UniProtKB/TrEMBL annotation:
Transmembrane segments: none annotated. One of its GO terms (biological process) is methylation. Keywords: Methyltransferase, Transferase. This is SAM-dependent methyltransferase.
Length: 265
């Protein structure tokens, strides 16, 4: 099935988001330029010392995490579908005098644009929901990993994507294993803290944990672990409470907000 219309719509929306996100407190670009690290405890603990390792970052937005890994000594390549995001990422890389590379393409087409293999493939937070089918995604990851290489992802839990957050209170209306695309059109973005309002038009797809795990296994990867966490590093859902650790949880803690998968080739 051809999803080019959906991909084009999503790319156009993310192109509009770049300037808004770059000016937001959420991304705090000035602090980042002055040395702040954009990475969180889950990914830092999972990947440890990356110095001297090659790292491919999938769906990198405008590259803050890619550049944070580069600051930690990794040789990084970042991928994103948004040309505006890649343009800003390249500009930041030059300004900060780092050595990361950035490629603008659909994540499913990475192997047509990047022939190198990597010791680490990394992706995080709000990424797989933009993909209609995880099998080509998982196969691409396998193809871009060196033998013995590590794939690591940290992502928002699929239960959290079952809710429509444009209703107050949020209502569970989407299927955990829903195959149909979810189309949303709304004003704003998750970072906005000003009067600037963009209209977001987005197609997304829900993927249960079984689908994610099985796609990776079928591609040839060996799963090291699956972890589920009730704490999120980001306050992006309604009415979350901040913990003493600076993380965010549901008031009733009824379901996890984040999961991690680590695998190897």
């Amino acid at each position: 099935m051809d999803f080019q219309k959906e991909f084009n719509t999503n790319r156009d929306t993310w192109n509009k988001k770049v300037a808004v996100h770059a000016a937001s407190e959420f991304y705090d670009l000035e602090s980042f330029k002055n040395g702040a690290d954009s990475l969180n405890k889950y990914e830092l603990e999972a990947l440890g010392d990356v110095s001297g390792k090659s790292l491919l970052h999938l769906q990198c937005h405008f590259g803050q995490d890619t550049l944070s890994w580069a600051r930690r000594g990794a040789s990084c390549t970042g991928i994103d579908i948004s040309d505006k995001a890649i343009e800003l990422a390249q500009s930041l890389n030059n300004e900060l005098e780092l050595n990361a590379k950035f490629v603008c393409c659909n994540v499913l087409d990475v192997s047509y644009h990047v022939s190198q293999t990597f010791e680490i493939v990394f992706t995080s937070y709000g990424v797989i929901g933009w993909l209609p089918d995880l099998k080509p995604w998982a196969q691409m990851i396998y193809d871009r990993l060196k033998p013995g290489g590590t794939f690591y992802m940290v992502e928002f839990h699929p239960i959290a994507w079952m809710f429509d957050y444009h209703q107050d209170p949020p209502k569970m209306i989407y299927g955990y294993q829903q195959k149909e695309a979810i189309y949303e059109e709304y004003e704003g973005s998750y970072t906005e803290d000003s009067d600037t309002k963009i209209v977001s038009k987005e197609y997304g797809w829900n993927h249960g944990l079984g689908e994610v795990i099985n796609a990776l296994i079928e591609a040839g990867l060996t799963i090291d672990y699956l972890k589920e966490h009730e704490e999120s590093p980001y306050d992006i859902y309604p009415d979350l409470e901040k913990t003493e650790k600076g993380m965010y949880v549901l008031k009733d803690r009824l379901y996890p907000l984040v999961f991690e998968i680590r695998a190897h080739k």
